[in-house]
Amino acid sequence: MIGRLAGRIDMRGPDHVLIDVRGVGYVVFVSDRTLATLPGAGEAAALYTELIVREDLLQLYGFPTLVEKEWFRLLTSVQGVGAKGALAILGALGAEGLGRAIALGDQASVKAAKGIGPKTAQRIVLELKDKAPAVMAMGGAAPTSAAPAETEVVEPVPAPAATAAPASTASAQAEALSALGNLGYGPSEAAAAVAEAAGETPRADTAALIRSALRRLAPA
Asked: Which residues does UniProt assign to the signal peptide (predicted)?
């Protein structure tokens, strides 16, 4: 299984890049959002990858963070959501936006992705709502970094970079979720409260997120 690729971008397409890793070229499909963050041809880049295997096809899909890769895996587990649809959702919302939408039951945001209808959006929210807290709690993992062109194919090892949302923001949400769990709140209600708080104040630190989430969780 190819878990991560690091090398030199040889070519950029409308929905994919060709990454040269020690003379071997890998075609990696990515979302619009990820493509926009990648450097130009001839420059170094690295992506976590998921290999989709079919009878007549092998395709690699790339992601800047392990969190986004996990969301892709979960999205494609939902009936009616293929790899193309999952990339469209991640391209429209990003990993953090998708986590908030699912935690809050926001079907409209999911439906805004190209090719996703209302029934599919409803199915995604319903089937993944209980899984959202665990994925959101992974947010403290830093995104993958670009690496020299001679880097070999290796399994994922997080490293600092600036190709996705700031790690401090994702880390604050993960820490707030953990703190609320320690206070006895259930994963789903904690995730929804943190998602609301983060949506209201995207750059809030851990303490501010916890206070804001607790206000939302307090009995009326």
From this structure: none
Rounded to whole angstroms, how far apart are CA atoms 146 and 203?
25
User: CATH code at 18?
Assistant: 2.40.50.140
Its domain, for residue 112, covers 66-136
Supply the pLDDT for residue 133: 82
- Examine residue 84 and state whether it is found in any structural domain, yes or no: yes
Amino acid at 35: L
108: alpha, beta or left? (left if phi > 0; alpha if psi -120 to 50):
alpha
pLDDT of residue 159: 37
Rounded distance between C-alpha atoms, residue 152 and residue 172, angstroms: 32
- Determine, yes or no, domain membership for 26: yes
Which of 141, 7, 128, 152 is closest to 65 using CA atoms?
A: 141
d(CA 122, CA 136): 20
- Cβ burial of 53 (10 Å; 0-12, 13-18, 19+) is exposed
Q: How many CB atoms lie within 10 A of CB 210?
A: 22
- What is the C-alpha separation between 210 and 176, in angstroms, rounded? 5
Residues in the chain where the model's pLDDT stays below 70: 139-167, 220
Bridge partners of residue 44, in order along the sequence:
8
pTM score, two decimals?
A: 0.74
The residue type of 133 is P
